[in-house]
Amino acid sequence: MKENLLPLHPGATEEFRQLLDGNSFRLEHIISHGECSPPGFWYDQEQEEWVTLLRGEATLAFDDGARQTMSPGDAVLIPAHRRHRVESVSVDAVWLALHFSR
């Protein structure tokens, strides 16, 4: 089945769509619509996460003070339990996120 990973439709809230799922991995397609992590919220995930930005601009923040600004094509590997959040994101941002265990 053909599908487009770069849709151009407006939305009010962030959209998560699971593309693939296996015993030790999950691949998600995320359309942010400009929605950042809520103030004070940190992701603290059991699995590692490899995330790539397909479209838009974004900044990830980590609880150790590090920041990663992302443009289309950039990818970041986030180790399990490294607390992070989406600090800023453009309204047209589209991501692929692979959550996995080694």
Secondary structure: elements and pairs:
Elements: E1 15-21, E2 25-31, E3 48-55, E4 58-62, E5 67-70, E6 75-78, E7 84-89, E8 94-100
Antiparallel strand pairs: 1-2, 2-8, 3-6, 3-8, 4-5, 4-7
Account of the protein in words:
There is one protein chain. By secondary structure, the protein is mainly beta. The protein has a single domain, classed as Jelly Rolls. Helices cover 0% and strands 47% of the residues. The strands form two sheets. The chain has a five-stranded antiparallel β-sheet with strand order 1-2-8-3-6, with no helix packed on it. It is globular and about 40 Å long. The N and C termini lie far apart (29 Å).
Short description:
This protein has 102 residues and is an all-beta fold. It contains no helices and 8 strands.
Whole-angstrom Rg: 13 Å
Mean pLDDT: 94
Would you identify the CATH H-level superfamily?
Jelly Rolls
- State the domain count: 1
Task: Outline the biggest β-sheet.
Answer: 5 strands, antiparallel
Low-confidence stretches: none
The SS-based structural class is mainly beta
Oligomer: single chain
Key features?
5-stranded antiparallel beta sheet; Cupin 2 domain-containing protein; 8 strands; Jelly Rolls; 47% strand; mainly beta; 3-stranded antiparallel beta sheet
